[in-house]
Amino acid sequence: MYSKTLDDPAQIKQIDSEDMLGKVSLLGPHLKLSFDEALKNDVPYKDIDSILFFGLGGSGITGDVINNYLLPISKVPVAVAKANYLPKYVGKKTLCIGLSYSGNTSETVACFKEAVKKQAKTIAITSGGKIEELAKQNGSVLVKLPGDYPPRSALGLLTGAALGCLYKTGLFNTIAEDIAKTVSFLENQKTKYEPTSPVQENPAKKIAAELTDTIPLIYGSESVGFTTANRWKAQINENAKVMAFYNFFPELAHNEIMADCKNKSCIVYLKNPDEKAEQLITNSVALKLMKAKNNKIIEIAAEGDTELEKMFSLIMLGDFISVYMAIVKGVDPTPVGKITRLKEELKKKAKPGPEKIDVASSSF
């Protein structure tokens, strides 16, 4: 039904006028580019007792991705903050990594200032803005990224830069090898999803067609599945302009399993085949019970050898799916009008003060 649109280069170009498809295909090259750029920096921080990422939206999910990647290998606690303040424990031995592609996300700016006040070890990853200014003023490590991308399509840039800085601390010696493997893996994977691959051979186009006119419920398990389910949900919201929700096992087996959403829902289960056997059994039984109350369940297994490859295999597929869903609807995936209008309204309502933050310029 949708093959004609999804396999027509002229229609795709007309609908995707700002080439979001081209941007999501850059995940692998962006990882390598920013990782290599970060390695040029001196990261003089030693005696680190904890690592904290802070950021929101398309930038903030970078912290979730890296947190899950580091979970099995880190000897120090790793956390992600998504607010306008830092946890109380942050101090001189905390490595604080501020993630704001625009450099003007108000919450991230506030957290960066607080990290400086607490004399934490600070790293700024941004394309410019206030975060860049603060980093330069306070002698923080700064990785400046290329600009002109929507923040949600800069995940590779942000992740590569953050991992490059972490590698330079000497805490994680396997990062360089894992990055190289992931970049190579993604370059091979993307050929299956690109517009030149026809619907019958393209998993991203097929799933996009299946999800059209549904409310996607994206489920994963903790670590790999949880973070990627969140990413899928956000990309479907912003690119396809479609309502979507996410949750994770085992938590959803204690509550959401009871919900009846059979009218328009479609469950997408992002599976990590290497999870513990008992968790896979729980997930399988729960999904069977839920199938009776839902129209459809699509199961997608993560691919790759490392945690990083597995996460990015699902992220890349979800990114392509979200754009193809927009194309099927005839909606340009790039503009985010309501988010822009929200910032404009907040700017009007912002009260002048001694340290006013430019809310309107904040694009995460």
TrEMBL record:
GO process annotations (BP): carbohydrate derivative metabolic process; carbohydrate metabolic process
MF terms (GO), sorted A to Z: carbohydrate derivative binding; glucose-6-phosphate isomerase activity; mannose-6-phosphate isomerase activity
Keywords assigned by UniProt, alphabetized: Isomerase
SUPFAM superfamilies in alphabetical order: SIS domain
UniProt protein name: SIS domain-containing protein
Record-linked Gene3D superfamilies: Glucose-6-phosphate isomerase like protein, domain 1 (3.40.50.10490)
Family: Belongs to the PGI/PMI family.
Signal peptide annotation: none
Residue span(s) of domain SIS: 35-185
InterPro entries: Glu6P/Mann6P_isomerase_C, SIS_dom, SIS_dom_sf, SIS_PGI/PMI_1
PROSITE patterns referenced in this protein's UniProt entry, alphabetically: SIS
Any Pfam family matching the protein: SIS
